[in-house]
Amino acid sequence: MKLAFTHEHRNGGAEWEKRDLFEWITDIFEAPAVRLGPGCTSVVRQHISNEFRNEGWGQDVKIDQDLNLTISAMKDDLAFQLQTGNISRAPYDLLKLQHLFQSERIEAAALALPTRAAAAKIGSNVANAERVCKEMTAFDRVITVPILLIAFE
Fold first, then answer.
1. Among candidates 110, 134, 129, 132, which has minimal Cα distance to 28?
2. Which residues pair with 9 in a beta bridge?
3. Which CATH number fits the domain that encloses residue 86?
4. Alpha-carbon distance 132 to 149, whole Å?
5. Strand pairing category for 69-75 and 58-64
6. Of residues 101, 130, 75, the one with CA closest to residue 11
7. What is the pLDDT of residue 140?
8. Which residue range forms the structural domain that includes residue 140?
9. pTM (2 decimals)?
10. What is the pLDDT of residue 64?
11. Which long-range contacts (CB under 8 A, 24 or more apart) does 134-141 make?
């Protein structure tokens, strides 16, 4: 696995840079030992989970006590979400991050997804960074949380 590109939505990358975490979070995706292909999602998730846990991030954080809704990781005023599943889940991830932002629980977020080509290697109809970039741009008046989108392959 390697970092393919990043995309800033509403200056999301700048928020991670202000906290000296931009290089750390993007370096997580420079993992040559993690190979993308069918059935790889558990290995990808475990690698990323270990990196966040080692830095003291909360894992599978509930965003609402009454609902079983979680995000991948959260620490201080930042949230992180990894999406390696069906494309229909990606807008839901954006909605969860927006909720945390509007509830004033976070100031910025990062969302990591495979590129279109990498998603095709993982399976059919898997969320991909190129599509989510277009959707964030199209809905920029709705999705106002600053997001650093991280694309990996």
1. 110
2. 147
3. 3.40.91.20
4. 9
5. antiparallel
6. 101
7. 95
8. 3-152
9. 0.96
10. 85
11. 135/90, 135/91, 135/94, 136/7, 136/9, 136/94, 137/9, 139/94, 140/9, 140/10
Q: Give how many domains the chain has, as a whole number.
A: 1
Main-chain dihedrals φ then ψ at residue 137, nearest 5 degrees? -65, -45
Handedness of CA 44, 99, 141, 15 (dihedral sign): negative
Dump pLDDT digits (tens) for 100-137: 999 999 999 999 999 999 999 999 999 999 999 999 99
Dist CA 94 CA 23 (whole Å) = 23
Task: Note the pLDDT tens digit of each residue in 42-55.
Answer: 999 999 999 999 99
Report pLDDT for 67. 85
Burial of 147 (0-12, 13-18, 19+ CB in 10 A): buried
What CA–CA distance (Å, rounded) separates 75 from 55?
Answer: 9
Please identify which residue in the block is written with the tokens 């190979």: 35
Q: Give me the sign of the Cα torsion angle 93, 132, 5, 126.
A: positive
